[in-house]
Design brief:
Elements: E1 9-19, E2 24-26, E3 29-30, E4 41-51, E5 56-58, E6 61-62, E7 69-74, E8 78-81, E9 85-87, E10 98-109, E11 112-114, E12 125-136, E13 139-141, E14 152-162, E15 167-169
Parallel strand pairs: 1-4, 2-5, 3-6, 4-7, 4-8, 5-9, 7-10, 8-10, 9-11, 10-12, 11-13, 12-14, 13-15
């Protein structure tokens, strides 16, 4: 949405869900007003979810609204790879968004999950509830690059592997 309205909502349900080919899902809100709308809500529900090939899920806001929310509820695995990104950022006074993933295994390979604030808002929240998390050349960020407080990253995993070129930041 542009102006003072909020971004829309999107629900995707299925067995195996694939989002690829440098595509974009965007439920953002943009406003120069201090009381601008919040970004929207995206939910993926099903068996497996694959986001790859530079695809980006955007739940960002500019102005006074908060970043959007992404909820992933899977009975199987989630893979983000080949430049894929999930961003629930804010570029105004609102807080960063929320990203919650419930899945068996989560693979982040050359991918990023961000819920950052680039202005006065606080950083967002990222919660990963998985049996195993594997990070290869990947980043998870809930940080502030402006005046707000840092965000929160919560990882609940029985197995966690991260290589040297990956990072987690909640500052």
């Amino acid at each position: 949405a542009e102006g003072q309205g909020s971004g829309g909502d999107l629900l995707v349900a299925g067995g195996t869900i694939t989002v690829a080919g440098n595509s974009e899902i965007n439920v953002s809100a943009s406003s120069t007003a201090a009381d601008g709308g919040d970004a929207g809500f995206v939910q993926f529900a099903g068996g497996d979810l694959v986001i790859e090939d530079g695809t980006e899920i955007k739940l960002t806001t500019a102005g006074g609204g908060e970043g959007g929310s992404l909820m992933v509820d899977l009975t199987g695995n989630m893979t983000l790879s080949d430049g894929a990104a999930i961003t629930a950022n804010t570029f105004g006074a609102g807080a960063g968004g929320e990203v919650i993933v419930n899945a068996t295994n989560l693979l982040l390979d050359d991918a990023v999950i961000r819920s950052d604030s680039f202005a006065a808002g606080v950083g967002g929240r990222i919660e990963l509830n998985v049996t195993s998390l594997h990070m290869n050349a990947a980043d998870i960020n809930a940080q502030v690059l402006g005046a707000g407080d840092g965000g929160e990253v919560v990882i609940n995993a029985a197995t966690f592997n991260m290589n040297a070129v990956s990072g987690i930041n909640a500052s």
